[in-house]
Design goal:
The structure holds two protein chains of two kinds. Chain A is 60% helix and 7% strand. By secondary structure, chain A is of the alpha/beta class. In chain A, helix 5 (118-145) packs antiparallel against helix 6 and helix 14 (321-333) packs parallel to helix 18. The termini of chain A are far apart. In chain B, helix 2 packs antiparallel against helix 4 (58-89) and helix 3 packs antiparallel against helix 4 (58-89). Classes of the chains: A alpha/beta, B mainly alpha.
């Protein structure tokens, strides 16, 4: 197939990618958007397979079949609660592929007798660096989310110095690749150091900061693809990669803003590593915490006109989303207005709660963003917090010295009654006590999330 | 040099297009956006196919093969799981 046809097909694929992402602007058009993107990908791959420099198809098809099988099994079997791990892993594979393709391209130029162009070697360097960090950083993120390694921030003395030294070493080797592209040892050394950098950079970040890390790695996987596009002089790779890079950066910004923290603070802060204020918990809670039974809460719910559910990561952990939906429907059938308030960083990745609730058939119209729902809390009869903690901690508004000071929160404390479903009074990720639990209008319901909601359903049915 | 400027132009403009398009995605779709855009970043598959098919050396073929596997997992897994999620958002 002549190059001009191939390049025009790549243009079509690029346009389809953009239209596909555009479709994501509304749940109604999103499925079609995704299909458009997949169509673009199919066109790009088929056209590439017809490239005349390909002399053998066995290896390609073996790879395609194996990859498709693994990808399909993962996609079909993954639980919605495990979506953050899945995306982390996919990010990593994208980065890994970029490293390998750039490495192969470097070998090819060497075999063809040199003639390295600076643009190519610089881009190869960047592919190795970004791709390596993405692959190994994503594996650590996956390990943390899957509970294979500790979800807490791992901090040790001299960590920042070590990170800085490794980063410096990576930059040095990256320059080395540009100056001596013929020695592949430097390239693989760069990949190895990028791997160490990826591990070090991710290991120091705690569980609840995962939304930021996954967004950032998402962005990196795109940028790695772009860098590979510069290596191969392929515009489609550059376009597709930069679209993903931009997407990841935007999500990273949104996540940071939702925590009122800078990206640097998330990456280097090590928040949640030390519980600084554990002693103060007694002062906050002593004698003020009121515990309630399902029957007492059912009486409140029975007469409530507006009920707002505030889901957090705990809902995902206890797989309570279906039970929550059933309770919501029960309350609606009794004439109450039911709303779901979703904080941007609830869960372990952007939009995590929304996917879980969508899985449980909660219509997306019932899911409201923080800015929309906050003015509604004063006219809310019952706010039910399930598995959320730091995102409803009023200290963010009142104590400028708190680690979560200035973080936008869901103002559940302004509701007439707040019901908090939680196993214990243990602190959230920020490691600080939550005065909401001791507030005048708060009832604590100590239980596992799913069991609690099921008991509530039974109690509400009995009360009426 | 001229070629570099052209590719850089494409890169920068594409980032702007990305910003414009992505800022319009509502928070409720952020998870499928990530998995879907992730699938798109599997576009490296195109490069991987060429490395493994041109068979310059055994090394490039092996690197290409592993890259094809990685990128295909990314593409197939990404688009499928996104489709699975998005069909849950459809009004029942």
């Amino acid at each position: 197939m002549p190059p001009v046809v191939i390049n025009l097909s790549y243009l079509v694929a690029s346009v389809l990618f953009i239209m596909g992402l555009k479709g994501m602007s509304h749940p109604r058009t999103a499925v079609r958007g995704n299909t458009l993107g997949a169509t673009g990908m199919l066109i790009a791959i088929v056209v590439t397979l017809l490239d005349r420099s390909i002399i053998s198809y066995e290896v390609i098809f073996a790879g395609l079949v194996l990859g498709s099988a693994i990808g399909a099994v993962m996609a079909i079997r993954v639980q919605m609660t495990a979506m953050p791990q899945m995306v982390a892993l996919l990010n990593g594979f994208g980065g890994g592929a970029s490293v390998l393709v750039a490495g192969a391209a470097l070998v090819e130029v060497g075999v063809a007798g040199g003639g390295y162009q600076t643009q190519m070697t610089v881009a190869t360097s960047l592919s190795a660096l970004i791709g390596g960090v993405t692959f190994f950083g994503s594996l650590v993120a996956f390990g943390k989310l899957q509970d294979l390694i500790t979800g807490n921030a791992v901090v040790f003395p001299g960590q920042h110095l070590l990170n800085a030294l490794v980063a410096l070493g990576a930059v040095g080797l990256a320059v080395g690749v540009v100056l001596r592209p013929e020695s592949m040892e430097i390239y693989w050394a760069l990949v190895a150091v990028a791997a160490v950098l990826g591990v070090l950079a991710t290991i120091g970040i705690g569980g609840a900061d995962m939304p930021v890390v996954i967004s950032l790695l998402n962005s990196y996987s795109g940028l790695a693809a772009s860098a590979t596009g510069f290596v191969l002089q392929n515009n489609m790779l550059i376009i597709a990669g930069s679209l993903v890079g931009a997407s990841g950066i935007i999500l990273t910004q949104i996540m940071c803003k939702a925590m009122n923290r800078s990206l640097a603070n998330v990456l280097f802060g090590g928040l949640g590593a030390v519980a600084t204020t554990s002693a103060k918990a007694d002062d906050v809670y002593a004698g003020k915490v009121k515990s309630a039974s399902p029957d007492e809460i059912a009486i409140l719910l029975d007469s409530a006109r507006r009920v707002v559910f505030v889901p957090g990561y705990g809902m995902a952990v206890s797989q309570a989303q279906h039970a929550v939906r059933s309770l919501a429907q029960l309350l609606e059938s009794k004439g109450a207005e039911v709303i779901f308030a979703v904080h941007p960083v609830a869960g372990r990745m952007p939009g995590h709660m929304n996917v879980l609730l969508a899985e449980a058939d909660v219509p997306y119209e019932a899911l409201l963003e923080m800015d929309v729902v906050n003015p509604m809390f004063p006219q809310t009869d019952v706010a039910i917090v399930i598995g959320a903690n730091d995102v409803v901690n009023p200290v963010a508004r009142t104590d400028p010295k708190s680690p979560i000071a200035g973080m936008p929160i869901l103002d559940v404390d302004k509701a007439r009654t707040v019901v908090v479903i939680k196993r214990s009074l243990s602190p959230g990720f920020a490691g600080i006590p939550n005065p909401l639990f001791a507030a005048e209008n708060t009832l604590m319901y100590f239980s596992d999330g799913q069991k609690a909601v099921n008991d509530l359903i039974a109690a509400v049915k009995e009360a009426s | 040099m001229e070629l570099l400027v052209t590719t850089l132009t494409i890169f920068v403009l594409a980032i702007f297009v990305g910003f414009e398009v992505i800022t319009k995605v509502p928070p409720t779709l952020h998870t499928p956006l990530m998995s879907g855009s992730n699938a798109i970043s599997g576009i490296t598959l195109v490069g991987a196919v060429l490395s493994s098919g041109t068979q310059h050396t055994t090394l490039t073929t092996v690197l290409g093969f592993v890259a094809v596997v990685f990128a295909t997992i990314n593409v197939v897994g990404g688009f499928l799981v996104t489709n699975r999620m998005l069909s849950m958002f459809k009004r029942k």
